[in-house]
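This section describes the prediction task in plain terms. A model, or a person checking by hand, is given the sequence of a single protein chain and must write out its three-dimensional structure as a string of C-alpha coordinates. No templates, partner chains or ligands are provided. The sample shown here is typical of the held-out split.
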Amino acid sequence: LKAADLTMACEALRHPSCLLESLRLGNCGLTAAGCQDLASALISSQSLTHLCLSSNSLGSEGVNLLCRAMKFPNCELQRLIMYHSLNECDLDVAGCGFLAFALMGNKHLTHLSLSRNPVADDGVNLLCEVLMEPSCHLQDLELVKCHLTAACCKKLSRVVARSKQLKSLDLAVNALGDDGVVALCEGLKHRRASLRRLGLEACGLTSGCCEALASALLCSPRLTSLNLMQNHFSPGGMMKLCPAFAHPTSPMWLGVGMPACPSAALRGP
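The expected answer:
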Protein backbone atom coordinates (compact mmCIF):
# COMPACT_ATOMS: atom_id res chain seq x y z
CA LEU A 1 0.00 0.00 0.00
CA LYS A 2 1.51 3.31 -1.10
CA ALA A 3 1.71 6.23 1.32
CA ALA A 4 -0.53 8.35 -0.92
CA ASP A 5 -3.19 5.61 -0.94
CA LEU A 6 -3.16 5.37 2.84
CA THR A 7 -3.50 9.16 3.11
CA MET A 8 -6.54 9.11 0.83
CA ALA A 9 -8.12 6.25 2.78
CA CYS A 10 -7.62 8.08 6.08
CA GLU A 11 -9.14 11.25 4.64
CA ALA A 12 -12.25 9.22 3.79
CA LEU A 13 -12.33 7.75 7.30
CA ARG A 14 -12.33 11.24 8.78
CA HIS A 15 -15.40 12.29 6.77
CA PRO A 16 -18.56 12.46 8.94
CA SER A 17 -20.54 10.40 6.41
CA CYS A 18 -18.07 7.45 6.51
CA LEU A 19 -19.66 4.50 8.32
CA LEU A 20 -16.77 2.01 8.06
CA GLU A 21 -16.48 -0.05 11.26
CA SER A 22 -13.69 -2.52 10.44
CA LEU A 23 -10.39 -1.86 8.65
CA ARG A 24 -7.82 -4.56 7.89
CA LEU A 25 -4.38 -3.43 6.77
CA GLY A 26 -2.43 -6.61 7.40
CA ASN A 27 0.90 -7.00 5.59
CA CYS A 28 0.53 -3.69 3.75
CA GLY A 29 4.09 -2.49 4.23
CA LEU A 30 3.05 0.19 6.70
CA THR A 31 5.68 2.00 8.74
CA ALA A 32 5.70 4.66 11.43
CA ALA A 33 5.30 7.32 8.74
CA GLY A 34 1.81 6.08 7.89
CA CYS A 35 0.70 5.98 11.52
CA GLN A 36 0.28 9.76 11.64
CA ASP A 37 -2.59 9.56 9.13
CA LEU A 38 -4.07 6.54 10.90
CA ALA A 39 -3.87 8.30 14.25
CA SER A 40 -5.72 11.30 12.86
CA ALA A 41 -8.40 8.99 11.44
CA LEU A 42 -8.82 7.24 14.81
CA ILE A 43 -9.46 10.56 16.52
CA SER A 44 -11.97 11.79 13.94
CA SER A 45 -13.85 8.63 12.94
CA GLN A 46 -17.14 8.09 14.72
CA SER A 47 -17.63 4.55 13.41
CA LEU A 48 -14.26 2.72 13.24
CA THR A 49 -14.18 0.10 16.00
CA HIS A 50 -11.92 -2.66 14.57
CA LEU A 51 -8.37 -2.10 13.28
CA CYS A 52 -6.00 -4.85 12.14
CA LEU A 53 -2.38 -3.82 11.50
CA SER A 54 -0.86 -7.30 11.49
CA SER A 55 2.52 -7.95 9.86
CA ASN A 56 3.54 -4.31 9.55
CA SER A 57 6.77 -2.95 11.03
CA LEU A 58 5.31 0.08 12.76
CA GLY A 59 8.10 0.42 15.30
CA SER A 60 7.86 2.13 18.66
CA GLU A 61 7.37 5.50 17.00
CA GLY A 62 4.35 4.29 15.03
CA VAL A 63 2.82 2.56 18.05
CA ASN A 64 3.31 5.73 20.07
CA LEU A 65 1.38 7.80 17.51
CA LEU A 66 -1.53 5.33 17.53
CA CYS A 67 -1.58 5.14 21.32
CA ARG A 68 -1.75 8.91 21.67
CA ALA A 69 -4.81 8.88 19.41
CA MET A 70 -6.40 6.16 21.53
CA LYS A 71 -6.15 8.41 24.57
CA PHE A 72 -8.65 10.84 23.02
CA PRO A 73 -12.13 10.28 24.53
CA ASN A 74 -13.79 10.39 21.08
CA CYS A 75 -11.68 7.46 19.77
CA GLU A 76 -14.17 4.60 19.34
CA LEU A 77 -11.67 1.78 18.70
CA GLN A 78 -12.64 -1.47 20.43
CA ARG A 79 -10.37 -4.09 18.84
CA LEU A 80 -6.70 -3.59 17.94
CA ILE A 81 -4.85 -6.48 16.33
CA MET A 82 -1.09 -6.17 15.93
CA TYR A 83 0.18 -9.74 15.71
CA HIS A 84 2.95 -10.59 13.26
CA SER A 85 2.80 -13.58 10.93
CA LEU A 86 6.58 -13.87 11.01
CA ASN A 87 8.95 -14.18 13.94
CA GLU A 88 10.09 -10.58 13.90
CA CYS A 89 8.34 -7.29 14.45
CA ASP A 90 9.15 -3.97 16.00
CA LEU A 91 6.61 -3.98 18.83
CA ASP A 92 8.83 -4.48 21.86
CA VAL A 93 9.01 -3.40 25.50
CA ALA A 94 8.96 0.28 24.55
CA GLY A 95 5.83 -0.30 22.47
CA CYS A 96 4.18 -1.98 25.46
CA GLY A 97 4.87 1.13 27.51
CA PHE A 98 2.97 3.23 24.98
CA LEU A 99 0.11 0.71 24.90
CA ALA A 100 -0.08 0.72 28.69
CA PHE A 101 -0.38 4.50 28.56
CA ALA A 102 -3.20 4.22 25.99
CA LEU A 103 -5.10 1.61 28.02
CA MET A 104 -5.13 3.82 31.08
CA GLY A 105 -8.65 5.25 31.24
CA ASN A 106 -9.63 4.03 27.75
CA LYS A 107 -13.33 3.11 27.92
CA HIS A 108 -13.68 1.54 24.47
CA LEU A 109 -10.75 -0.80 23.74
CA THR A 110 -11.71 -4.32 24.84
CA HIS A 111 -9.59 -6.58 22.58
CA LEU A 112 -5.81 -6.42 22.11
CA SER A 113 -3.72 -8.94 20.17
CA LEU A 114 0.06 -8.64 20.38
CA SER A 115 0.82 -12.21 19.34
CA ARG A 116 4.18 -13.04 17.74
CA ASN A 117 5.80 -9.83 18.90
CA PRO A 118 8.90 -9.82 21.18
CA VAL A 119 6.96 -8.33 24.07
CA ALA A 120 8.95 -10.36 26.63
CA ASP A 121 8.43 -10.41 30.40
CA ASP A 122 9.28 -6.74 30.88
CA GLY A 123 6.67 -5.68 28.32
CA VAL A 124 3.98 -7.79 29.96
CA ASN A 125 4.88 -6.39 33.37
CA LEU A 126 4.22 -2.88 32.05
CA LEU A 127 0.83 -3.93 30.70
CA CYS A 128 -0.05 -5.69 33.96
CA GLU A 129 0.31 -2.49 35.96
CA VAL A 130 -2.51 -0.95 33.91
CA LEU A 131 -4.63 -4.11 33.65
CA MET A 132 -4.97 -4.13 37.43
CA GLU A 133 -6.46 -0.63 37.40
CA PRO A 134 -10.28 -0.38 37.59
CA SER A 135 -10.17 2.20 34.79
CA CYS A 136 -8.85 -0.41 32.29
CA HIS A 137 -11.68 -2.03 30.30
CA LEU A 138 -9.67 -4.63 28.34
CA GLN A 139 -11.51 -7.96 28.17
CA ASP A 140 -9.45 -10.04 25.72
CA LEU A 141 -5.63 -10.15 25.63
CA GLU A 142 -3.70 -12.35 23.18
CA LEU A 143 0.01 -12.88 23.86
CA VAL A 144 0.75 -15.95 21.76
CA LYS A 145 4.45 -16.57 21.12
CA CYS A 146 5.62 -13.36 22.79
CA HIS A 147 8.86 -14.70 24.34
CA LEU A 148 7.34 -14.94 27.81
CA THR A 149 8.66 -17.02 30.71
CA ALA A 150 7.57 -17.91 34.24
CA ALA A 151 9.05 -14.58 35.41
CA CYS A 152 5.97 -12.64 34.28
CA CYS A 153 3.39 -15.04 35.70
CA LYS A 154 3.21 -13.59 39.21
CA LYS A 155 2.17 -10.23 37.76
CA LEU A 156 -0.30 -11.93 35.41
CA SER A 157 -1.68 -13.86 38.37
CA ARG A 158 -2.38 -10.59 40.20
CA VAL A 159 -4.18 -9.30 37.11
CA VAL A 160 -6.33 -12.45 36.95
CA ALA A 161 -7.17 -12.08 40.64
CA ARG A 162 -7.99 -8.36 40.57
CA SER A 163 -9.35 -7.47 37.13
CA LYS A 164 -13.13 -7.41 36.85
CA GLN A 165 -12.91 -6.86 33.09
CA LEU A 166 -10.40 -9.42 31.72
CA LYS A 167 -12.32 -12.45 30.44
CA SER A 168 -9.88 -14.10 28.01
CA LEU A 169 -6.10 -14.55 28.20
CA ASP A 170 -4.13 -16.51 25.59
CA LEU A 171 -0.52 -17.30 26.54
CA ALA A 172 0.08 -20.12 24.06
CA VAL A 173 3.57 -20.96 22.74
CA ASN A 174 5.44 -19.29 25.58
CA ALA A 175 7.97 -21.01 27.86
CA LEU A 176 5.94 -20.58 31.05
CA GLY A 177 6.66 -24.07 32.38
CA ASP A 178 5.15 -25.62 35.48
CA ASP A 179 6.36 -22.84 37.79
CA GLY A 180 4.64 -20.18 35.69
CA VAL A 181 1.32 -22.02 35.62
CA VAL A 182 1.44 -22.73 39.36
CA ALA A 183 1.77 -18.97 39.86
CA LEU A 184 -1.17 -18.30 37.52
CA CYS A 185 -3.31 -20.79 39.42
CA GLU A 186 -3.07 -18.67 42.55
CA GLY A 187 -4.86 -15.89 40.71
CA LEU A 188 -7.47 -18.24 39.23
CA LYS A 189 -8.46 -19.41 42.71
CA HIS A 190 -9.30 -15.90 43.85
CA ARG A 191 -13.03 -15.42 44.42
CA ARG A 192 -13.05 -12.17 42.42
CA ALA A 193 -11.31 -13.66 39.36
CA SER A 194 -13.40 -13.01 36.25
CA LEU A 195 -11.36 -14.97 33.69
CA ARG A 196 -13.45 -17.32 31.54
CA ARG A 197 -10.91 -18.51 28.98
CA LEU A 198 -7.23 -19.38 29.42
CA GLY A 199 -4.93 -20.54 26.62
CA LEU A 200 -1.86 -22.52 27.66
CA GLU A 201 -1.16 -24.48 24.48
CA ALA A 202 2.47 -25.52 23.96
CA CYS A 203 3.75 -23.82 27.13
CA GLY A 204 6.19 -26.56 28.15
CA LEU A 205 3.92 -27.95 30.87
CA THR A 206 4.31 -31.34 32.53
CA SER A 207 2.39 -33.35 35.09
CA GLY A 208 4.18 -31.33 37.76
CA CYS A 209 1.58 -28.56 37.49
CA CYS A 210 -1.52 -30.75 37.28
CA GLU A 211 -2.27 -30.72 41.01
CA ALA A 212 -2.20 -26.92 41.09
CA LEU A 213 -4.36 -26.77 37.95
CA ALA A 214 -6.90 -29.18 39.42
CA SER A 215 -7.14 -27.10 42.60
CA ALA A 216 -7.58 -23.91 40.57
CA LEU A 217 -10.30 -25.48 38.41
CA LEU A 218 -12.26 -26.54 41.47
CA CYS A 219 -11.97 -23.08 43.03
CA SER A 220 -12.23 -20.85 39.96
CA PRO A 221 -15.64 -19.18 39.99
CA ARG A 222 -15.94 -18.43 36.25
CA LEU A 223 -13.31 -20.26 34.15
CA THR A 224 -15.11 -22.28 31.44
CA SER A 225 -12.43 -22.87 28.78
CA LEU A 226 -8.88 -24.15 29.22
CA ASN A 227 -6.53 -25.07 26.35
CA LEU A 228 -3.71 -27.41 27.39
CA MET A 229 -2.93 -28.89 23.98
CA GLN A 230 0.65 -29.77 22.96
CA ASN A 231 1.98 -30.11 26.48
CA HIS A 232 3.66 -33.11 28.10
CA PHE A 233 1.22 -34.67 30.54
CA SER A 234 1.54 -38.26 31.72
CA PRO A 235 -1.55 -40.42 32.33
CA GLY A 236 -0.96 -39.86 36.04
CA GLY A 237 -1.04 -36.10 35.54
CA MET A 238 -4.28 -36.34 33.59
CA MET A 239 -5.81 -38.38 36.40
CA LYS A 240 -5.14 -35.47 38.75
CA LEU A 241 -7.10 -33.16 36.45
CA CYS A 242 -10.07 -35.49 35.98
CA PRO A 243 -11.77 -34.92 39.38
CA ALA A 244 -11.96 -31.18 38.72
CA PHE A 245 -13.24 -31.69 35.20
CA ALA A 246 -15.79 -34.32 36.24
CA HIS A 247 -17.26 -32.21 39.04
CA PRO A 248 -21.07 -32.08 38.62
CA THR A 249 -21.13 -28.28 38.52
CA SER A 250 -18.19 -27.95 36.11
CA PRO A 251 -19.04 -26.07 32.88
CA MET A 252 -15.46 -26.58 31.68
CA TRP A 253 -14.33 -27.00 28.08
CA LEU A 254 -10.92 -28.64 28.14
CA GLY A 255 -8.55 -28.98 25.19
CA VAL A 256 -5.79 -31.54 25.81
CA GLY A 257 -2.99 -32.90 23.65
CA MET A 258 -0.13 -35.18 24.68
CA PRO A 259 2.85 -36.46 22.68
CA ALA A 260 1.70 -40.06 23.05
CA CYS A 261 -1.96 -39.58 22.19
CA PRO A 262 -4.13 -37.50 19.86
CA SER A 263 -5.47 -34.11 20.85
CA ALA A 264 -8.89 -34.14 22.40
CA ALA A 265 -11.52 -31.59 23.19
CA LEU A 266 -13.62 -32.58 26.18
CA ARG A 267 -16.60 -31.04 27.90
CA GLY A 268 -17.80 -31.39 31.43
CA PRO A 269 -21.11 -33.03 32.36
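For orientation: Residues 158 and 187 are 6 Å apart (CA to CA).
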